[in-house]
Amino acid sequence: MADFLKVVDLTLSGLDAPTVRLWVERGDEGEVVASTGYEISADREHALIRSVAVDPSLRSAGRGGDLARFAFERAAEEGACTAWLFSRRSGPFWRGLGCVPADRYELANVLGETCQVRLFKETGQLDREVAWSRPLT
């Protein structure tokens, strides 16, 4: 999983944390070709969508949207009311899924205990990120 996320340039922080839920799709040879997941907040009201990725050779077939919707649905089943995420490169993709630009510091406030937010705060990356959100209900 980590090798795949490196190739698609996504954050590896906290992949083994108990608050992180991850799913992978494997190719014919057992290799990871797609992934999705989220990190749930302590109050279970918010989900940080993360690790939504499709192997570059398999993109443009709708898989990414299906994976994101899967993460939205699973997070809602856990009680989350709002999905949040960071994305500097894929704004049109996330807009197409009902996300709107959000305040990165608000995201960091409601999801401050998550691995990814902690990493972004510690490294100063939070100040460079673009946040998105959408209701789950």
- Uncertain stretches: none
Number of DSSP strand runs? 6
Radius of gyration: 14 Å
Spatially, the strands of the biggest sheet line up as: 1-2-3-4-6-5
End-to-end separation in angstroms reads 30 Å
- Nearest-integer average pLDDT: 86
Counting copies of identical and different chains, the oligomeric state is single chain
**Given the structure, what is the number of helices?**
5
User: Which outline best applies?
Assistant: globular
Q: Helical amount among residues, as a percent range?
A: 25-40%
Structural class: alpha+beta
What share of the residues does DSSP label as strand, in percent? Answer: 25-35%
- Largest sheet: number of strands, sense, barrel closure: 6 strands, mixed
What is the element string, with H for helices and E for strands?
HEEEHEHEHHE
